[in-house]
Design a protein that fits this description.
Blueprint lengths: L1 H10 L4 E2 L1 H7 L5 H16 L3 E5 L2 E4 L5 E8 L5 E4 L7 E3 L12 E6 L10 E8 L4 E8 L4 E5 L8 E3 L11 E9 L8 E10 L3 H11 L8 H9 L6 H5 L9 E3 L10 E7 L5 E7 L2 E4 L6
Antiparallel strand pairs: 1-3, 2-3, 4-5, 4-7, 5-6, 7-8, 9-10, 9-12, 10-11, 12-13, 14-15, 15-16, 16-17
Helix pairs in contact: 2-3
């Protein structure tokens, strides 16, 4: 009965009710059940959930109890909801997140709390998911599998049925998509949509980082074909618009297989016998004052 009454007050935070009106809301006609409503109202009043604004009339204690905001999840699993409707983040325990994930837009019920205590609430509706795919390491058993997300703000492993593994092996990195999350289930259910490769390998880890941030790590055949048509020959026209350092001794800490060389020192002898040192950082060249050998 208490839970039913809480539902009525949550859905109508500005309305006042007596026990007869609440009985009609709950379609209760039995006299003994109406007595249960009175007992439940006293319990809710004593707990501070509702207030008796005048004898026999009750109202939700928190004015404007429902707010909309975005969830921020900590690595420990609890969260905060940030909303323009309140002046400070609202604490939400892990049990009261009700499957909300980091970045989700939710409707939050604000608990009635003492002024000396920070605001606290409970997620009552997930309005919009910010994402449904996660990168992680697959752990296989004989009957089921889990993907353990790399993202520390995702506190739940994703349960993967064996028929949804797509051939991924134990310990490999992959991308899983959440396909359902039953209300009573602790973990979401998902499927593997992309196998990234063996954990620890350079290409696997690079692809994992790109996938985590929603960036493409594979391209279409058309894009790859166009890329292959790009010439690796430096034309005279291109040389004419660049400063040419090819004959200047230059040293870089970048390895020989790097995709670009953007941190370097160069040294060259001037006509007056002095030496000039150049510092090259991210395509910007700085010449230091000439120094004697």
């Amino acid at each position: 009965m208490t839970s039913n009454l809480i539902g009525v007050f949550r859905d109508n935070p500005r309305n006042t009710y007596n026990y007869k009106q609440l009985a009609r809301q709950l379609l209760i006609t039995d006299h003994s059940e109406k007595r249960v409503i009175i007992d439940a109202l006293n319990k809710l009043k004593n707990s501070g959930y509702i207030q008796e604004i005048y004898p026999g009339k009750y109202k939700l204690k928190s004015a404007g109890a429902n707010i909309v905001g975005k969830v921020e999840i900590s690595a420990s699993g609890y969260g905060y909801v940030v909303s323009d409707s309140v002046s400070e983040p609202v604490f939400v325990s892990q049990n009261n997140l009700h499957h909300a994930l980091n970045g989700d837009t939710v409707k939050l019920y604000l608990f009635a709390t003492k002024k000396s205590k920070g605001p606290e609430g409970e997620v009552i509706d997930i309005i919009e998911r910010t994402r449904d795919t996660f990168v992680g390491v697959v752990e296989l058993s004989s009957r089921f599998a889990f993907l353990s997300p790399d993202n520390r703000q995702m506190p739940y492993d994703i349960f993967i049925p064996l028929e949804k593994l797509k051939g991924v092996k134990d310990g490999q990195k992959a991308i899983a998509k959440i396909i359902e999350w039953p209300e009573q289930a602790k973990n979401p259910f998902g499927e593997i949509i992309e196998i990234l490769g063996n954990q620890g390998e350079n290409e696997t880890e690079m692809h994992a980082i790109l996938a985590e941030f929603g960036l493409p790590f594979r391209f279409s055949q058309e894009v790859n074909h166009i890329a292959e048509l790009i010439s690796d020959v430096i034309t005279d026209e291109e040389i004419s618009v660049r400063r040419d350092f090819r004959r200047v001794p230059t040293f870089t800490i970048d390895p020989e297989d790097a995709k670009d060389f953007d941190d370097a020192l160069s040294i060259s002898k001037l006509n007056n016998g002095n030496w000039e040192i150049g510092v090259h950082i991210a395509d910007v060249t700085h010449m230091l004052n000439p120094t004697h050998s």
